[in-house]
Amino acid sequence: xxxxxxxxxxxxxxxxxxxxxxxxxxxxxxxxxxxxxxxxxxxxxxxxxxxxxxxxxxxxxxxxxxxxxxxxxxxxxxxxxxxxxxxxxxxxxxxxxxxxxxxxxxxxxxxxxxxxxxxxxxxxxxxxxxxxxxxx
Length: 136
Hints:
Layout: E1 4-9, E2 12-17, E3 20-24, H1 39-61, E4 70-77, E5 85-93, H2 103-110, H3 114-120
Antiparallel strand pairs: 1-2, 2-3, 4-5
Helix pairs in contact: 1-2
Protein backbone atom coordinates (compact mmCIF):
# COMPACT_ATOMS: atom_id res chain seq x y z
CA UNK A 1 0.00 0.00 0.00
CA UNK A 2 1.21 3.48 -0.80
CA UNK A 3 -0.07 6.79 0.53
CA UNK A 4 0.81 10.21 -0.79
CA UNK A 5 1.12 12.87 1.87
CA UNK A 6 0.88 16.50 0.74
CA UNK A 7 0.67 19.98 2.15
CA UNK A 8 -2.43 21.80 0.79
CA UNK A 9 -1.78 25.02 2.72
CA UNK A 10 -1.48 26.45 6.19
CA UNK A 11 -0.81 23.71 8.73
CA UNK A 12 -2.85 21.14 6.79
CA UNK A 13 -1.30 17.81 5.91
CA UNK A 14 -3.41 15.34 3.94
CA UNK A 15 -2.98 11.64 3.13
CA UNK A 16 -4.24 10.26 -0.18
CA UNK A 17 -4.66 6.55 -0.86
CA UNK A 18 -6.93 4.77 -3.28
CA UNK A 19 -9.96 7.02 -3.75
CA UNK A 20 -9.71 8.45 -0.22
CA UNK A 21 -8.25 11.58 1.34
CA UNK A 22 -7.71 11.89 5.08
CA UNK A 23 -7.44 15.56 5.95
CA UNK A 24 -5.60 16.81 9.02
CA UNK A 25 -4.92 20.24 10.47
CA UNK A 26 -3.59 21.78 13.64
CA UNK A 27 -5.63 23.82 16.11
CA UNK A 28 -5.25 27.61 15.95
CA UNK A 29 -2.86 27.48 18.92
CA UNK A 30 -0.63 25.21 16.81
CA UNK A 31 -0.69 27.47 13.75
CA UNK A 32 -3.61 25.84 11.96
CA UNK A 33 -7.27 26.62 11.43
CA UNK A 34 -8.71 23.62 13.26
CA UNK A 35 -10.44 22.61 10.02
CA UNK A 36 -9.75 18.90 10.55
CA UNK A 37 -8.51 16.65 13.34
CA UNK A 38 -4.81 16.53 14.12
CA UNK A 39 -2.84 13.56 12.77
CA UNK A 40 -2.56 12.21 16.32
CA UNK A 41 -6.32 12.42 16.85
CA UNK A 42 -6.85 10.48 13.60
CA UNK A 43 -4.36 7.89 14.83
CA UNK A 44 -6.18 7.51 18.15
CA UNK A 45 -9.57 7.36 16.42
CA UNK A 46 -8.27 4.47 14.31
CA UNK A 47 -8.03 2.38 17.49
CA UNK A 48 -11.65 2.79 18.50
CA UNK A 49 -13.03 2.51 14.98
CA UNK A 50 -10.95 -0.62 14.33
CA UNK A 51 -12.26 -2.22 17.53
CA UNK A 52 -15.72 -1.14 16.40
CA UNK A 53 -15.35 -3.00 13.10
CA UNK A 54 -14.62 -6.21 15.01
CA UNK A 55 -17.54 -5.67 17.42
CA UNK A 56 -19.85 -4.96 14.48
CA UNK A 57 -18.60 -8.07 12.68
CA UNK A 58 -19.21 -10.18 15.80
CA UNK A 59 -22.80 -8.92 16.00
CA UNK A 60 -23.45 -9.46 12.30
CA UNK A 61 -22.11 -13.02 12.39
CA UNK A 62 -24.56 -13.89 15.15
CA UNK A 63 -27.55 -11.93 13.87
CA UNK A 64 -27.36 -9.54 16.85
CA UNK A 65 -28.62 -6.00 16.39
CA UNK A 66 -25.72 -3.57 16.96
CA UNK A 67 -28.17 -0.70 17.55
CA UNK A 68 -27.40 0.93 20.88
CA UNK A 69 -23.86 -0.47 21.15
CA UNK A 70 -21.11 2.09 21.33
CA UNK A 71 -17.49 2.20 22.36
CA UNK A 72 -16.15 4.88 24.66
CA UNK A 73 -12.40 5.32 24.23
CA UNK A 74 -10.41 7.00 26.97
CA UNK A 75 -6.74 7.92 26.83
CA UNK A 76 -4.59 8.50 29.88
CA UNK A 77 -1.28 10.30 29.64
CA UNK A 78 1.80 8.95 31.38
CA UNK A 79 3.36 11.89 33.27
CA UNK A 80 6.63 9.95 33.56
CA UNK A 81 6.95 9.48 29.78
CA UNK A 82 6.77 13.06 28.49
CA UNK A 83 2.97 13.04 28.72
CA UNK A 84 2.62 10.40 26.02
CA UNK A 85 -0.43 8.18 26.12
CA UNK A 86 0.25 5.52 28.73
CA UNK A 87 -3.10 3.75 28.81
CA UNK A 88 -6.07 3.40 26.49
CA UNK A 89 -9.44 2.09 27.66
CA UNK A 90 -12.17 0.86 25.37
CA UNK A 91 -15.50 0.54 27.16
CA UNK A 92 -18.05 -1.34 25.08
CA UNK A 93 -21.47 -0.12 26.12
CA UNK A 94 -24.39 -2.39 25.33
CA UNK A 95 -28.10 -1.66 25.64
CA UNK A 96 -30.27 -3.34 28.27
CA UNK A 97 -31.33 -6.73 27.03
CA UNK A 98 -28.18 -7.40 25.04
CA UNK A 99 -27.42 -11.07 25.82
CA UNK A 100 -25.02 -11.23 28.78
CA UNK A 101 -23.53 -14.44 27.41
CA UNK A 102 -21.93 -12.35 24.63
CA UNK A 103 -20.34 -9.62 26.79
CA UNK A 104 -16.95 -11.34 27.16
CA UNK A 105 -17.01 -12.35 23.49
CA UNK A 106 -17.49 -8.70 22.50
CA UNK A 107 -14.33 -7.86 24.44
CA UNK A 108 -12.44 -10.70 22.75
CA UNK A 109 -13.61 -9.50 19.34
CA UNK A 110 -12.46 -5.92 20.03
CA UNK A 111 -9.08 -7.26 21.15
CA UNK A 112 -8.56 -8.61 17.60
CA UNK A 113 -8.25 -5.06 16.26
CA UNK A 114 -5.38 -4.86 13.75
CA UNK A 115 -4.40 -1.36 14.93
CA UNK A 116 -4.05 -2.63 18.52
CA UNK A 117 -2.02 -5.61 17.31
CA UNK A 118 0.37 -3.20 15.55
CA UNK A 119 0.86 -1.42 18.86
CA UNK A 120 1.78 -4.72 20.45
CA UNK A 121 4.20 -5.62 17.63
CA UNK A 122 5.20 -2.32 16.05
CA UNK A 123 6.66 -2.19 12.54
CA UNK A 124 10.15 -0.96 11.83
CA UNK A 125 10.42 2.57 10.45
CA UNK A 126 12.75 3.72 7.72
CA UNK A 127 12.63 7.45 6.98
CA UNK A 128 14.76 8.98 4.24
CA UNK A 129 14.84 11.72 1.60
CA UNK A 130 14.93 11.37 -2.17
CA UNK A 131 15.36 14.17 -4.66
CA UNK A 132 12.80 14.12 -7.49
CA UNK A 133 12.06 16.52 -10.32
CA UNK A 134 8.83 18.47 -9.95
CA UNK A 135 6.43 18.01 -12.86
CA UNK A 136 5.67 21.26 -14.66
